[in-house]
Amino acid sequence: MANVTFASEVTWSGNGVLSTADVQGKKFNIDEPRELGGTDQAPNPVEYLLGALGGCINVLVTSFAKQFSVEVKDLSVHIEGDLDPDGFQGKNPNVRPGYQEIRYRIDIDSPSPDENVKALIEHVEKVCPVKDTLQGTAVKNLNYISAT
Amino acid sequence: MANVTFASEVTWSGNGVLSTADVQGKKFNIDEPRELGGTDQAPNPVEYLLGALGGCINVLVTSFAKQFSVEVKDLSVHIEGDLDPDGFQGKNPNVRPGYQEIRYRIDIDSPSPDENVKALIEHVEKVCPVKDTLQGTAVKNLNYISAT
Lengths: 148, 148
Description:
two-stranded antiparallel sheet; homodimer; GMP Synthetase, Chain A, domain 3; 30% helix; 3-stranded antiparallel β-sheet
């Protein structure tokens, strides 16, 4: 299949660091806690990465469950990631700005045979777009535009 | 500084592929369009990645503006990424499931000298946690738990 291009416009509110992302009319706010100059109204950017990973795993588990003969009664994913603020605050050039590591745990309530559940999870981990993207994607600046 | 650990719980709604991410009490929904089995109520996981990148750039531009003597009147980021559905649908093992590439364009309205704006943007690109994370982070499965 040809590539699908997803896109978003993220506009600064003019208030602190608060921004709103618009994805084809669906909107969500991005903020920071007060200690990072925000007003703590919404998750921050790195928290959205974790939620996106959990959401992606849930989408795939529920979408592929039938194919692996798995009945899903309940499903949640715990995701966590370690980040050293010295990196993005520019205090230590030896510290990477992003997550050092991201970890997740899938909690699935299913009466189906454990081998089916295991096969489903292994498949989901192999085809998860968010997991794959986080593990290494080229991110390019098209350019920046300064209007005066 | 020591690492800060961010975390999120993402719980399946029981309805289609819709999930809700909870980040310390702040919640957002994750869905898919109808053609991917969703009800199109919220952005999908890979769209959240783009919004997170734009939000992160905006946070950093506005946070570091003063340090680079840049006045920001208006600011938005356009982000786009190409993804071939054959990858996550398991139709072609040679296609990666995640984004092939992510691109962004920063639109900044500033009366400040262009060299200041340029230096600010270069700094932001260097210290952006989301950009850095997307470019390659270890993502580990702690384990999965199947309750019967």
